[in-house]
Amino acid sequence: MTARQQHPDAGITVRRMDFEFSNVPRYWADKDPHFTHLLNALSATFPEGERFFVHSVRHFQDRITDPVLRQQVSAFIGQEAMHAKEHSHYNEYARKHGIDLGFIENFARQRMAFIKGKMSPERQLAITCALEHFTAILAEQMLTEPDIFENFDPSMMKLWLWHAVEESEHKGVAFDVYQDIVGDYRLRIRAMAVTTFFFIMHTTWFQARLLKADGKLFDVRMWLKGLDRMWGRKGHFRKLIPSYLQYFRPDFHPWQHDNRAVLEKWKRELNLDDAAVGKKTVAVAAVVEPVPAPAPATPARAARPRQPAAAKPAKARTVTKAIPAPKAVKLKSLDKPTAKAATGSKAGARPRKTQGGAEPVPT
Ligand SMILES: [Fe+2]
Ligand SMILES: [Fe+2]
Fold first, then answer.
1. Domain ranges in the chain?
2. What is residue 275's predicted lDDT score, i.e. its pLDDT?
3. Which residues have beta carbons under 5 A from ligand 1 (an ion)?
4. What is the pTM of this model?
5. Residue 8 CA to ligand 1 centre (angstroms)
6. pLDDT of residue 96
7. Among 214, 234, 306, 319, which one is least packed by beta carbons within 10 Å?
């Protein structure tokens, strides 16, 4: 089966969200500094990263002839713009409460400017496809393994689950644009190899700097627990290796893993189909392509089969019901230190930036 053959489409809906972070504790992921700062490091790269994804796909927008793919690209751009907005919102909140994510945002901005200035649009799109594969497999893991987020702060849990749902919804869009217009397998694979190296290196470096700022860089027990959580026998990252490697197959397509059932489950549980739409919604056909295509002799630039003309796209929803607030949970805010935090910093730790001079490190 080639990437152009039959694959499902979950539908892509842009949802206008507005999360509230005012009660998010400092270590909002399982009360674990290592895990929290890993996710903080990712969150800090998202706004620039999402804008880069949009930039790289938009470059080819006028050359897309498939009407369904054009619609999907519009929805993809809308979703990524909303992800950038909500993660910027969280990043700003974290910064105001003494977690300096600014150096990561600046680094990401400079890195993306370098890529945009020095690399061809084709290579930029290949990098986007690689990063979209990362987000797709991370999203799938989050949506199918509740132990990952069951001890998250409720607001952060909803932010990450919403993002995971939408990353899954649009996981094939950049890839389809790449296959239809560029279609260079070797470039796609090279981009993935290089992107993987820098992604792991940079994320680890960002995480280490955030831990250093908290005086926890040399907390050996914390590191051992954190490394076991991610890379141990049942580690989250370790379990992703098979799905990561799928990308290297010449006939890979993101929708070869059909996760529409789990997406529907989470859309119901998070009220995503009722919430936040109405202000802006884009919906596209939720169909299975019925026409398998013969493998083209030269994959680049071949027209991709899509739904038959008779298939109707889903209509855009215009629902105005608001998102119910997460269940009330008593939380410590980021700027309310516990007694333990006030005395628990290691010797030699650099003082953190805090608001109003308070020492805000509840553990
Ligand atoms: Fe995103
Ligand atoms: Fe994405």
1. 33-330
2. 56
3. 80, 83
4. 0.76
5. 20
6. 82
7. 234
